[in-house]
From TrEMBL:
Protein name (Swiss-Prot/TrEMBL): DMT family transporter
Pfam families, per the entry: EamA (PF00892)
TM region positions: 38-56, 68-87, 107-139, 159-177, 189-213, 233-252, 284-302
Organism, scientific name: Roseococcus pinisoli
InterPro entries found in the cross-reference section: EamA_dom (IPR000620), EmrE-like (IPR037185)
Keywords of this entry: Membrane, Transmembrane, Transmembrane helix
Residue span, EamA domain: 159-298
Taxonomy of the source species: Bacteria, Pseudomonadati, Pseudomonadota, Alphaproteobacteria, Acetobacterales
Length: 303
């Protein structure tokens, strides 16, 4: 198995685990409060991961430039909006379905990467992405008619709009991350990716933390009061982001995001056994269709 595939699967697991914990925090914090903990508490863990890698592997990279900082800022802003939209999507139809809608990011990332980065995907991988998208559509349309008006209502429901919007933001984040790694001088792609995680999380903490300070000061205090649970979210976020950033540095964005759709398997397990949500048969079938698409993507990539 290529290293980037293993790293991407790890990223999917960490992300699902972290999002499930964030969903629990929604009972104690506002939307922005639950979102900011992943950055605020993620910074020290990100530094730990970066220093551990550097102490073991060594290496260096060139001077930080404004282009790199700007791209990290754009990636951070995209991730902030994506996280808020993702959390918002859970309310209407639950954790599993909200996450499934956000997985349209694979298709969106593929199209954006082709346009902005010139990435090329094999035909079988494109087929896999299409199959995954059909799984998302099945989730959206399950229990509804197939007339034009029914399709329009299903794809404009709150869960769909928030989830697909989150996918778009995460797709843009992926592009900015890869561009940031390419902008930073140096030969060790993994070291540069881990440094990018720390820089991005610091920027995110300043941006969303500043928003809380100005608009929701009581929530900022609540973020510190819930430090035990919030620290777990931060740790998982740091490990997950590190894996995503490294994956983007080692393989095309579209491939990483497509394989990352395997998160839906972890999501179903967390939804059922961690959050206690009851899953409908149609939701499981739609999710499994997503996974079959991921398998096709991998087969196409490894041929």
């Amino acid at each position: 198995m290529p290293l980037w595939v293993f790293i991407t699967l790890s990223a999917a697991l960490f992300q699902c685990w972290r999002t499930a914990l964030q969903q629990r925090l929604r009972g104690q914090l506002s939307l922005n409060g639950a979102a900011v903990v992943r950055y605020l508490y993620g910074v020290p863990f990100g530094l730990m991961i970066l220093l551990t890698y550097w102490l073991i592997m060594g290496g260096s990279f060139g001077p930080v430039n404004l282009g790199f900082i700007g791209l990290c800022a754009l990636a951070g802003i995209g991730q902030i909006f994506g996280t808020n939209l993702l959390i918002s999507s859970f309310g209407p139809r639950g954790f599993a379905v909200g996450t499934a809608y956000s997985k349209t990011e694979a298709v969106q990332a593929a199209v954006i990467a082709v346009i902005l980065l010139g990435e090329v995907l094999p035909a079988l991988s494109w087929l896999g992405i299409a199959v995954s998208l059909s799984g998302v559509m099945y989730l959206s349309l399950a229990g509804r008619g197939l007339k034009g008006a029914d399709i329009l209502r299903a794809t404009t429901q709150p869960a769909a709009l928030c989830g697909i919007g989150a996918g778009f933001c995460f797709a843009l984040t992926s592009i900015f991350i890869r561009k940031a790694n390419m902008t930073l001088p140096g030969e060790d792609a993994i070291l540069k990716a881990l440094f990018s995680v720390v820089v991005t999380n610091v920027i995110q903490t300043l941006l969303q933390g500043g928003w809380l300070l100005l608009r929701e000061p009581k929530q900022l205090l609540a973020v510190f009061r819930t430090w035990r649970n919030s620290m777990q979210v931060g740790a998982l976020s740091a490990f997950g982001s590190s894996c995503w950033f490294v994956g983007f540095s080692l393989a095309p964005v579209a491939m990483v995001r497509a394989v990352g759709q395997s998160e839906i398997i972890f999501t179903l397990l967390f939804s059922r056994f961690f959050l206690g949500e009851r899953l409908k048969t149609k939701d499981v079938l739609g999710a499994l269709t997503l996974v079959s698409g991921v398998v096709l993507v991998l087969v196409g990539a490894l041929r």
